Batch of 4 targets.
Target 1
Amino acid sequence: MARPTPSDPAPVSALWQDGWYRFARRLPSPNFGPRPTAAPIDLIVLHSISLPPGQYGGDEVQRLFTNTLDWKAHPYFEQIAGLEVSAHFYIRRDGQLWQFVDCGQRAWHAGVSRYRGRDNSNDDSIGIELEGLEGNTFEAAQYETLSSLCAALAQRYSIEQIAGHEHIAPGRKQDPGAGFEWSRLQRDLGWPTRCFPEGVAQIQEA
């Protein structure tokens, strides 16, 4: 499959330091591991997250991904106590971008998953969390940051597909949900329909 073309090309060396994106705030997570030998990095997986659910603006997500969240600080946290997870990136409501795991490494964001004939999507994907609640809408600043990040990822890695957590773990996960505008992201990126989950995109291939 031919790779999507970045919508706003820039020199790769200006965007990346190894697997770290230069325009993200770096906060390394201990929750990662090596990818399987020869595993491609060709899938972007989008998620939504907020802690506690529906509350925005705090540092709880960063603390979750770095194993420093106080499980007793909110009743909801007791339900996820001891959870060790991470994503490569996190986009705040104002568009601020954080990175927790080197993109060359395997972050722990997908869980039990399968997409287009492959199991274990953590092996071949880059995970991006959007601050939000599944089913709700997202902010313009988040789409702007997301599209720039996806374009940069396509320059650095062999990205061929982008999907939601709901598409790689159907029935188990529902994020980012109905409030996420796939057609908007596709329009911003200019990537063809084949790069997106079936039924969510609009631009047909020439």
Target 2
Amino acid sequence: MTFDVFVDGSANLPKNLLNGIKVLPCDYLLNGQPRTYSGDIDSFDYHAYYEGLKNGDKIKTSLLNTALFLDYFTPIVEKERDIIYISMSSGISGTYNAAVAAAKEIMEEYEGSFVHIVDSMGCGFGNGILALKAAKLSSDGVDAREAARIVDEAVPHACQYFTVDDLNFLKNTGRVSGVTASIGTILNIKPILFGDKTGHIISCGKVRGRKNAITALAAKYRDKRMAGDDNIVCISHGDCIDEANELANLVKEINPKAEITICQHEPFSGAHVGPGMLAVFFWGKER
């Protein structure tokens, strides 16, 4: 690889996709007790985690701080290696700004070094598919500055659409009002949400019932997907594997060549979307 690619645990990448991508840990509190998620999604007990959320467990997440980035980035730069880090959206976390501060400090101290921070404007596999692109560019011998330009330009095409089963988790993080959550729960309204071009989570539709929500996610893939050779599709779920498989089948009907990865949704952002979250990520014409 011509440069090193970093993500953090929110990128949701299973081991079989990492291919040399380095993963930074994410810290959170579970009922007031500190926990560290290393980014090993394959070993994450998602059933216990999401069952805990259903039963009232309280999760508090925090941004990755500048000191952590310095600890991980500095040894790489000292080996005269360049770095591209794919950050979770600046619209939902201060992590991006902390990483930018670390990159600035390192490049001022180490003359000629290059540390680039990509604002993914997303989270979960929204980070992950951008990291996969960066890692492919590195393995193909593209230099870090050119790769950074290419990945930055790819951000608006990293599509991410999702639905949630319980609007109260979004209410608790300020994404919807209490009144909206109450009415939505009573009427069985399921929102279709996405990460917009500014990196904020907004609604782009609502349907009644879970089946219709799954169909709506597949329709977003059908309408937005980018024609071409890149058939990567990632689906993440908050302990609802059967529905994830149902969504995958609908995607396959739309594009039989789709290369689908299904994975439990990581705990760091999973606390904000809750059990039953279901998402599809892919390369699209636009968000």
Target 3
Amino acid sequence: MKRLVCAALCALSLSALATPDDPSTVPSDRNYAVHANYQTYFGDYAALRKIQKKPADLIFIGDSITEQWRWGAGSPVWKQHFEERAFDFGQGSDRTQHTLWRLQNIDLSFISPKAAVIMIGTNNFADTPEEIAAGVKAVIAATQKKFPGIKVILMSILPNARATEKMAAADVLIAALADRKNVFYLDLAAKFTPVGDNWKGLGRDKLHLSAEGYESWASEVEALLPTVLN
């Protein structure tokens, strides 16, 4: 039931946000404001502290693909790899501008992460690749401001049935944001190869990840972490 409710909310959110709203680099509460469930989850500082029972040296930042580490296909993989050390800051239907607003306005002082895993931009499908990349760059900057000294693992935007070519073009631009000192680019999209009319690692909706996709993501991050945190 929980998966069905979450899937329905994501679908409704996507429909509601299907037209361009705010520029990709301008913080917007538009997505957060229309979802009482996210306001309840992220707006209760005491509850968040209770959820995050152990110190987090990692934070995952993104949209529903990141949110779904918390339930469904991502949950078992999260429990195996990250539950003891990471906080999930994913929110369904977020575009870069919405994540920017959350980073600026939600109190995350209960954690002190050393590294952030950022995957954002797939919902900016109405933007140009340049606008998407600019939004991703702004999210990186906001993350670094929120957590001074943090290292960033920047994930490629994954292929999907909605805007694969545009996301691939944006990936070329965001890859250039990595300096291998403070920002490290991880091309997960290269692992998501075409399979029939879908991609390896994606679910039936050709957008969100399967368990195999989350396992691939976890393995790639785990392999890079020693370099990032060195």
Target 4
Amino acid sequence: MNQSESFHTTHWTRVLAAKGDTEDSRLALSDLCDTYYDPVHAYIQYTVRDVPADMVRDLTHEFFAGLLTRPGLDSLERGRGKFRSYLLGAVKNFLSDWRIKQGAEKRGGNQEHTEVDEDTATSPANDATYDRQWAYAVLGRALSLLEQEHRDAGKLDHFENLKPWLNGNATELSQAEVAQKLGISEGAVKVAIHRLRKRFRTLIRSGIEETVLSEEEVGIELNYLIEVLR
């Protein structure tokens, strides 16, 4: 087995698992939709003009409902690359079809319609909004997994006290105070923070690996994640 084949047996797992029409594939696709809900919702919110929040939510639900009723991701092939890009293209097509439907209803006498600004729908700034929410989703999923690991190990209190050193909220916190609170040495706190950050990075990388094709793309996505968060 060559390096590329070995990579594909362990990476891009959630996307590949979502292909097909089985219960497992539907669960995998549902998991992907849950992870990417916020990026898609943000994109629709910034693309569809002057609509109430409930309509944005309904459109987001309609998009994912359509995705979930398809037979997996059979149209997504290995050569198509990142799932992030695939989903952005899918929501653009969804809004394009919805816009056409809105126009047809208007011509048919239904005056209650909502417009999608063509310039806004193709705006790089709008794509950046989607990508920024994608980055938050990747970090949020990794953080949730890390929390669950600590809960399973009976160390949730350690996680809650050390989490500020992951999310940038530790600027006014004292490691000595945390050490006293947890009943461990300050040196042990430093080691725990180092291990926590290392595990956090590993979970972020794993999450990206599940939705790209190659080792090279993992590095590109990680660098892009850092870029959009800046």
